[in-house]
Amino acid sequence: KRRIMVDILKMQAEQARLFRNQNRQFREALFSSLVHLKPKYCLEIGTHIGQSTEVFQKYFDEHQPDGVVVTVDIHKYKNIESKNVKQLIVHPHVNITSKTKNSLIIT
Q1: CA 56, CA 64: separation in Å to the nearest integer?
Q2: Which residues contact 65 (CB under 8 A, 6 or more apart)?
Q3: Which residues of 4-40 are buried (b: 16+ CB within 10 A; e: fewer)?
């Protein structure tokens, strides 16, 4: 039983290490893409805990000081205080008042 617990703990530690590495890689890839594309405005859909938002903020601080990222989510998971970041909270539900063959009318 003890041996199984040790194996489980080792496996969890390895998964956590891989996850941290993947997170770092996605941030580096996003930052490199921003530097290459040189956007002045960005729209982020899904703020969650703000990892990508921090990358956008770093890009704007270093390369595009007057740029802006608008980040949108249905909850405010994290307070983000930056002149380059505009955080919007949206309502997740809409009322569909009617339907036609190829479109919806949303109110």
Answers
A1: 10
A2: 84
A3: eeeeeeeeeeeeeeeeeeeeeeeeeebbeebeeeebe
Average pLDDT rounded to a whole number, residues 18-33: 76
For the stretch 49-87, pLDDT in tens is 888 898 999 999 999 999 999 998 888 877 888 899 998
Question: CA 82, CA 61: separation in Å to the nearest integer?
Answer: 10
| Token output for 103 | 């479109």
Enter the DSSP assignment of 89: E
Place of tokens 């994290």: 78
Q: How far is CA 23 from the centre of its chain?
A: 11
Residue with tokens 């990358």: 55
SS3 label, residue 101: coil
Letter for the amino acid at 99? Answer: K
Taking each helix axis as running N to C, give the angle between helix 51-63 and helix 2-37, from 0 to 180 degrees, rounded to the nearest 10: 30
Say how many C-beta atoms besides its own lie within 10 A of residue 60's C-beta. 23
What tokens does 63 get? 């390369």
